[in-house]
Amino acid sequence: MENIFVVTKGEYSDYHICGVFSTKKKAKLFIASIKSHEIDDYQIEKYTLNPYDIELSNGYKLYFVRMAKDGNVIEVKLGESDYSIDIVSFDVRKNIYMYCYAKDEQHAIKILNEKRGQKIALNQWPV
């Protein structure tokens, strides 16, 4: 996967993109070319270019899956999120959930079930 490096500045309504670069070195050179007293105001953010290209090319859809520790599926639906994809989280009832690209509901369940097994094996389930 190819990465891009985005130089940003500001916060909230003042947040803006100053430039997009193919390497981190080029992004740093851009920041270094700016007046020295402002350098700390700039951030470099790394993004993956076309992060889900394979999945989208193969017709995968975004799913949301929630599952209990024992593997019982609580909820599966087509997802509506555009962030935190493939990141495993836990809700207030200590159920595991995630958004993921999958062929269908069963594939999405399988993906989360594998993550569930890893969390249990690594003793990373919240108490």
Tell me briefly what this model is.
The chain has 127 residues and is of the alpha+beta class.
What strand line-up does the widest sheet have? 5-4-7-6
Characterize the largest beta sheet: strand count, sense, and whether it forms a barrel. 4 strands, antiparallel
**N-to-C SSE series?**
EEHEHEEEEH
> What share of residues are in beta strands?
25-35%
Alpha carbon gap, first and last residue: 36 Å
Secondary structure class reads alpha+beta
Number of domains: 2
Q: Segments where pLDDT lies below 50 for 5+ residues?
A: none
Helix content: 10-25%
- What is the count of DSSP helices, taking H or I runs of 4+ residues? 3
Mean pLDDT: 93
Q: How many distinct beta strands?
A: 7
Computed Rg: 19 Å
Shape: elongated
Describe this structure in words.
- The chain folds into two domains: 3-48, no CATH class; 54-121, no CATH class.
- The protein is 24% helix and 33% strand.
- The radius of gyration is 19 Å and the shape is elongated.
- It is an alpha+beta fold.
- The protein has a four-stranded antiparallel sheet with strand order 5-4-7-6, covered by helices on one side. A three-stranded antiparallel sheet has the order 2-1-3, covered by helices on one side.
- A hairpin with a 5-residue loop joins strand 6 and strand 7 (96-102).
- It contains three helices and seven strands.
Notable characteristics:
four-stranded antiparallel beta sheet; alpha+beta; 2 domains; 24% helix; 7 strands; elongated
